[in-house]
Specification:
Blueprint lengths: L2 H7 L6 E7 L7 H14 L4 E3 L9 H11 E7 L19 H13 L5 E6 L16 E4 L5 H14 L6 H7 L4 H11 L18 H12 L3 E6 L3 E9 L1 H9 L7 H5 L3 H15 L5
Parallel strand pairs: 1-2, 1-3, 3-4, 4-5
Antiparallel strand pairs: 6-7
Helix pairs in contact: 2-5, 3-4, 6-9
């Protein structure tokens, strides 16, 4: 699949809490991947992911593009590929070319703070391609260790500011006044109170309907149902990407205490009580 086609259609609004790893796919590198995965368990819910470890029947390109676009952090190992013959050249031909290709894609759509580069030290200096030679490469001696990698990932996560990305800015600038109104009305509520629905469609104005669909197209909202348990139950939810758009727009969420003192709270409680009554539950 061509990268542009994928990113125009399959960029998700929910970021995978994982570290995507781009490195030479070689059994000799298994120990290195084991170290990376062990370190990733400290900071990422879904650990580390490398193409080749998946089980679904998808094309590798699709999986690579999805991981580059939607992983929380991306790590590329620019160490010399052991399968290539040793050379005295100072260019990047010693690095696995698939890794270089993936790095090129990542650097074109992700922020520098989302990308970590590591490389094993060698006697021969490395000359990266012009477009990526300004990126910081962390060099390690001998074998990769947890002590080397842990502070690098920790520091990278501290610097990561998704809301400053060009994708967030573009989405924020595509919102109309009705979409902004939905954000200010529901997006400021704390967790467990910030989803919303329109039980009576006649109460939902056409501009609001269009705005909700537009926010879904932008990956800011997603629509979820009760599925098999109760297919008729549904609600709109804000995605993690949508939260970053709100952060860009300086839309702040209320704390639980602030929400309980707000004019919105009595109506929210009333709606919840009606829902629980219908479901034969209690607060």
């Amino acid at each position: 699949m061509y990268p542009k086609y994928f990113f125009e259609r399959f960029w998700e609004g929910e970021q995978k809490d994982q570290l995507f790893v781009g490195m030479a796919f070689d059994n000799q590198e298994k120990n290195k991947m084991d170290i990376i995965n062990k370190v990733a368990t400290i900071s990422f819910k879904d650990n580390a992911f490398m193409v080749g470890s998946e089980v679904e029947a998808n094309s590798k390109n699709h999986i690579i593009f999805d991981s580059i676009a939607n992983s929380k952090m991306i790590l590329f190992d620019l160490s010399d590929d052991k399968r290539f013959p040793e050379t005295k050249n100072d260019d990047f031909s010693r690095i696995n070319q698939n890794v270089i290709y993936e790095l090129g894609i990542a650097s074109s759509i992700r922020e520098p703070t989302d990308i970590i580069l590591i490389r094993k030290k060698t006697d021969t200096p490395l000359k990266l391609p012009f477009d990526i030679q300004t990126l910081n490469v962390h060099l390690f001696d001998g074998d990769l260790t947890e002590n080397f990698l842990i502070p690098i990932i920790k520091k990278a996560l501290e610097k990561q500011e998704w809301y400053k990305s060009k994708r967030v800015k573009a989405a924020a600038e595509s919102i109309d006044e009705f979409g902004l109104g939905l954000m200010l009305e529901s997006g400021t509520k704390p967790d467990n109170w910030d989803h919303f629905s329109f039980e009576d469609f006649s109460l939902m104005s056409m501009p609001k309907r269009i705005a909700a669909h537009r926010l879904m197209d932008l990956g800011i909202l997603f629509f979820d149902t009760g599925k098999c348990r109760n297919p008729s139950e549904y609600a709109y939810h804000w995605t993690s990407f949508g939260r970053e758009v709100m952060k860009f727009l300086c839309i702040k969420r209320m704390s639980k205490e602030e929400f309980e003192k707000s004019p919105q709270y009595p109506d929210a409680v009333k709606v919840l009580e009606e829902y629980l009554k219908k479901e034969n539950k209690s607060l």
